[in-house]
Design a protein that fits this description.
The chain is 51% helix and 16% strand. The chain has 146 residues and is of the alpha/beta class. It has a five-stranded parallel sheet with strand order 2-1-3-4-5, sandwiched between helices.
């Protein structure tokens, strides 16, 4: 059995790579998908496809349409979603993706530090499992295969 995991969360740190390495070390049959990790590409995809937009609002709107389509397609094909919240970045996209996982009835593992217990209490309550680290999330995934 191979599972496809959608990795939702900020794109500025190497947390996705940590998960991929740990999955390989554990020999877990996992395929990973997620948002576009090239920030410039993500921000400019609308203009790349549709041409220059008249202002920043339209530029963001056009890119958001394409990024949201990508997220929807990949998340709906995923078996499970992991959403990571860290302390360093504002994470509106992560909150949106976690909410989409819930709306799509996708199993959800939420990773958040202790300092975000209160701000994320509603999302945490909706997640199947909430943990505080990538290592704990990997142990949850490994348990699925026992």
């Amino acid at each position: 059995m191979n599972l496809t995991i959608y990795l939702a969360g900020e794109i500025h740190t190497d947390w996705r790579e940590q998960i991929k390495v740990k999955a390989k070390e554990k020999g877990l049959p996992l395929t990973f998908v997620g948002p576009q990790e090239n920030h410039e590409r993500s921000d400019n995809i609308g203009e790349f496809i549709s041409g220059e937009q008249p202002n920043k609002l339209y530029k963001d709107h056009t890119a958001s349409n394409i990024n949201n389509l990508r997220t929807q397609v990949l998340m709906q094909k995923a078996d499970l979603v992991i959403a990571l919240f860290g302390e360093q970045y504002k994470q509106w996209n992560t909150a949106m993706d976690a909410s989409m996982a819930y709306a799509y009835n996708k199993p959800l593992i939420l990773i958040r530090p202790e300092s975000l217990i209160h701000p994320l209490k509603e999302l945490s309550n909706r997640a199947n499992v909430t943990v505080e680290s990538v290592d704990q999330a990997m142990e949850v995934l490994a348990y699925i295969f026992e």
